[in-house]
Amino acid sequence: MLIYLRVLKESFNFAINALKNNKLRTMLSLLGVTIGIFSIIAVLAAVDSLEKEIKGSLSSLDQSTIIVMRFSFGPSEIPQWKRQQFPDVTYEEYEYLSKSLPDLEAASFVLNVPQEAIKYRENTANDVGIAAVSWEYYDIEALQLEEGRFFNQAESVRGAPVIILGHDVAENLFEGSDPIGKKVRLYGRKFTVIGLLEKKGQSLFGGSHDTNVFIPVNIVRRIYGSNSRSTFPQIVLKPNDDVDDNAEFVAMVEQQLRNTRGLKRDEVNNFFVNQLQGFTDFIDNITGQMNFIGLIISGFSLLVGGFGIANIMFVSVKERTNLIGIQKSLGAKNRFILFQFLFEAVILAVIGGLIGLFLVWLASVVVSQFTGDFQFILSPWNMFIGTAVSAVIGLISGIIPAISASKLDPVEAIRTGM
């Protein structure tokens, strides 16, 4: 074991000397490994960050949650032209499903509408996400309130002008004072603040609850009208915890909605019943494909880097031919010489890989500063992958030069070196 530690130490010294004595040549050769590792780890980190961001927006909802709407979460066999003719789900269908579905814990009607500005006296909060929902949504997403309450069933049904503010919205409008009971202006109307959400996390609506507000869906229906295409209606369903077969529950939802829409047996569904679990599986599939494509493209950079390391090692073998002959004449075995050059190749490749990892970390810091809530994350696992791939590239690139060095005849090596 001690002899291999000595070989490792000597190989490290040779690698450092190669960097010192032939800076330009070595750096140009290592550039391929650096770029390759940078490309691979940057792709992995970007995809991981994107996946975490998307799944984080769904984390507050149970994976058994079902969303009924005219769009599909994933690919569909139904032609696009036909999907575009699907009608939106309606409030009446939400009421029907709420009453007719067994094993249903909660159902909520949701309208996604454009962002708006909210005013309180001279203060204005711009680009606020408007979550227009029925009262059951509070239980479906298990929202956490810092102050006040969520609107009740009566307020939801009649479309009362009440509002629950996200933390950042309240800060912008009230600058630290208590907002409960005060009136803000939205859609040209006055809404009474009855609740304040805790500061936290991502939401189903593609942003942070901190920049969202919640209002009764029926007041938004009156403002936009029932047939407006600028709204995006959904019915959110949460089955009971004791429902073992989610597929059976989905089939029941489909049958009930087909009945209320009067669809015939041979007609396809003109709606989609989307499961969050299916959506996360779809995300995993997409990110897996993105990773694969990115790795293929980055592999070409690593291939060039591998040729660069092999070039360095062949030159190193040629420059140290005399030294190899002396070592072998003094009793050094072939495997000693072999490991010496292999270690050197691996160390050089790992140095290039570490430079690539440093550049990815630097890029992640810079990108995160300009993307707001989106955080570009370089995980320890990706760092390990980068280091391991670098070592493997060094091992593969150095194996042929190392074998050629280990097989040199000592007499010929000394004579050639002289």
TrEMBL record:
Entry-linked InterPro entries: ABC3_permease_C (IPR003838), MacB_PCD (IPR025857), Macrolide_Exporter_MacB (IPR050250)
User: How is this protein positioned relative to the membrane?
Assistant: Multi-pass membrane protein
MacB-like periplasmic core domain location: 26-245
Annotated ranges, domain ABC3 transporter permease C-terminal? 296-410
Compartment(s) where it occurs, according to its Swiss-Prot or TrEMBL record: Cell membrane
Which parts pass through the membrane?
27-47, 292-315, 336-363, 383-405
Q: What is its main location?
A: membrane
Record Pfam families: FtsX (PF02687), MacB_PCD (PF12704)
What's in the keyword line of the UniProt record? Cell membrane, Membrane, Transmembrane, Transmembrane helix
Family assignment from sequence similarity: Belongs to the ABC-4 integral membrane protein family.
- Name it: ABC transporter permease
Q: Which species does the entry assign this protein to?
A: Salinimicrobium gaetbulicola
Q: What is the lineage of its organism?
A: Bacteria, Pseudomonadati, Bacteroidota, Flavobacteriia, Flavobacteriales
